[in-house]
Design a protein that fits this description.
disordered C terminus, 4 helices, about 15% strand, alpha+beta, single chain
Amino acid sequence: MNEQFHYQHNGRTVTLPYLRNIKVGVIRKLRNLGPEDQFFGILEAVADEDTLAVIDDMTADEFGAVMEQWQKDSGITVGESVASPTS
């Protein structure tokens, strides 16, 4: 349960819990938002200040690459049910 996603960007590290390890309460509170707001809401709920600072310094393309890899490595995507199988 302590597994984390790590991504290097310009010598700095983005560290996030895998999406499958995020508490359902975080997701439940964001369920009525649009996909982009859900994604940023999850990110802001689970990232520490250092990780957010690295992300804030990224271009949109760099950020997209990190988020795509985070979802891929997590085995789920935002908008997919947490209870969905990760086969």
